[in-house]
């Protein structure tokens, strides 16, 4: 997975927008205005921050050396994932989708219904 592949995947999910709210170095993906993924644009090694169920977040950190507590994020709910090739792309995409789904589940019912109708 590279940055372009990650970007394409995120933008295909319903209701997703991309922004640079923290300046030109961090690409942020939101669903219905809520952040579900961030990725730096100015680092030599690709990584991203994704929301995660707290128990699963701990499990992933124990299982994979390239999964760390979320950099500049709530360490309980966010992981930083370093994309080095040690984790299969299918798993990475699954974690992105899990992050998206967690954020969608926290949206008001009206917003969730709006997403389903698109």
UniProtKB/TrEMBL annotation:
What Pfam families would the database entry show? YjbR
**Signal peptide segment:** none
Protein origin, superkingdom:
Bacteria
Q: Which residues form a coiled coil?
A: none
Indicate what this protein is called per its UniProt record. DNA-binding protein (MmcQ/YjbR family)
Q: What is the lineage of its organism?
A: Bacteria, Pseudomonadati, Bacteroidota, Cytophagia, Cytophagales
């Amino acid at each position: 997975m590279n940055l372009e592949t990650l970007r394409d995947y995120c933008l295909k999910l319903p209701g997703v927008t991309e922004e640079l709210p923290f300046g030109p170095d961090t690409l942020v993906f939101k669903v219905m205005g809520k952040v579900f993924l961030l990725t730096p644009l100015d680092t030599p090694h690709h990584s991203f921050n994704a929301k995660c169920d707290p128990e699963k977040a701990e499990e992933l950190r124990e299982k994979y050396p390239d999964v760390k507590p979320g950099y500049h994020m709530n360490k309980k709910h966010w992981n930083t994932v370093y994309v080095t090739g040690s984790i299969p792309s299918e798993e990475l995409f699954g974690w992105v989708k899990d992050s998206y789904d967690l954020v969608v589940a926290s949206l008001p019912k009206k917003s969730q219904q709006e997403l389903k109708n698109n």
